[in-house]
Amino acid sequence: MDNSSEKSETRAALSTPPPLDQKAKQVILHELERILKSQPFRTTSRSRQFLSYVVHNCLDGHLENLKERTIGVEVFQRHPDYATGDDPVVRVNAGEVRRRLEQYYYAAPPDTPVRIEIPVGSYAPEFRWTTAPVSATTPVELPPLPPPPPPAAEEPLPPIPETPNPPLPRKPRRWVWLAASAGAVLLLALLVLSFSLRQKQADSAIDSFWAPVFNTQRPVLVCLSKSVVYRPTFDLYQKYAQTHPGTFQDEFKRLNEQLPLDPDEKLAWKDMEIYPEFGLATGDVYAEGLISTLLAQKGKPRDLRMGSNCSFEDLRDSPSVVIGAYDNRWTMQMASNLHFAFQWDHGVQQFPHIRENGPSGRFWAAEVGPHYRYSVDYGVVTRLVDSSTGQLLISIGGLGTAGTQAAGELISNPDYLDQAMRGAPRDWAKRNLQVVVKTRVTDATPGPPQVVATYFW
Question: What pLDDT, on a 0 to 100 scale, did the predictor assign at position 174?
Fold first, then answer.
């Protein structure tokens, strides 16, 4: 599977784009800088590294570097012989970059001269000019739109066969026609009513779940988890460059090239430093995007805080959404004694798991596949109407990043939430609640959330 995918990517990556002169390249690099500093990209270093790498290599003519394996080695520090079929890090991040580019261009300023796109099935960027080409000598033209399909020929209706008049009086035939018409109208009305009721029920589930948020004038505080990440210090890069001149001279290379130290070389703790820009999980960011989109559709402002920037005083000031489990102290602190709680003991369960506090003592542990990657993950949605903060607190977290994403999808998708609340008590909207969700992970992508347990109090 790896060979065929790499061959197709090679063909896509090595296709020759239109030539660009120096002025056009400057415009593209300026647009790249604006993208990397925009809201969708400035909180994710991986997406910035990926997009910067493919754009620079494309502009420099190094299209042979735009293959999955090469990107995995150069950008994500994978071993040169790693199995791309088992480790989809490049494909996952390419999809994430495409999604963030869509978010950026949805609100892009009107003076944007060029759009940078990563087409599906390729890692070579395309540059689509929204204004006149910047150079008359080497124009960059938009590909022509495909011609509209020719209108389908209208086939004549088949002739209505002549049938002899039935030996029935005219009046009963008219009543039969009226009855059939009334039946059809009634059936159509029932279908429309059924669809409207289902849509209203789905909308009401979302409205009921988020009602305490929408009923306050305060903005929603969204606390996104952020793990501690270490990287080599600048002095360590410089030390290596002294014996290898020309290496790691700029931040782009330090972020995108692996530091090839001798495995037996000893390092001091001072050679490592905390890097605050790293540490965001893909599923957590995805869940935050879903929730922020829902809040924006409802006209509700939100205040985003990451990692330690979210304090208890902040939680007391506004209704809050806490994203993440083991990497978010507020989830672990405020939900540790609830009905469904995250645990990680060293007894029977050696992996993180969710345990039900009570007589049944059920627990849910992730299923781990090759290379310790989750194939099945679990998450918990917690909504505390009356929390210790004095404000509404919503917490979503998973055993892994896929579980957090599934929990985020549950509370932002009307269909998923409606299905989850079908067996709930009538007054569930006024109660505290917890929902345990399950998701199957394929190629590092979580599937739809499945509700496996609920609790209301």
Answer: 53
Tell me how far apart the alpha carbons of residues 288 and 379 are, in angstroms, rounded to a whole number.
15
Residue 274 class from Cβ within 10 Å (0-12 exposed, 13-18 middle, 19+ buried)? Answer: exposed
Is residue 82 within 8 Å of residue 134, measured between CB atoms?
no
The sign of the CA dihedral 409, 413, 415, 419 is positive
Per-domain boundaries in the chain: 2-129, 202-227+280-456, 231-274
Q: How many CB atoms lie within 10 A of CB 171?
A: 7
Distance of alpha carbon 20 from alpha carbon 280, whole angstroms: 36
| Identity of residue 100 | R
Give the sign of the dihedral formed by CA 355, CA 307, CA 432, CA 299. Answer: negative
- Residue whose tokens read 């009305």: 189
Take residue 71 and report the two structure tokens written for it: 């990107």
Q: What is the pLDDT of residue 185?
A: 55
> Could you give the CA distance from residue 379 to residue 42 in angstroms, rounded to a whole number?
27
Q: Which amino acid is at 63?
A: L
The CA-based angle 91-95-101, given to 5 degrees, is 145
What is the per-residue pLDDT for 201? 43
Q: Give every residue of the chain whose pLDDT is below 70, as ranges.
A: 1-18, 132-203, 345-350, 371-372
**pLDDT tens digit string along 137-195?**
444 443 333 343 344 333 333 343 443 444 444 444 554 445 555 565 565 555 444 44
> What angle is formed at CA 365 by the lines to CA 363 and CA 356, rounded to 5 degrees?
20
Strands (E), 155-229: 220-224
pTM recorded for the entire structure: 0.54
Could you tell me the CA-to-CA distances from 438 to 177, 340, 374, 380 in Å, in that order?
53, 14, 12, 9
* DSSP conformational letter for 450: E
Residues 439, 379: Cα–Cα separation, whole Å:
8
CB atoms near residue 91 (< 10 Å) = 19
Reading across the β-sheet that carries 363-365, which strands appear in turn? 340-343, 353-356, 363-365
| Lookup result for tokens 């505390």 | 384
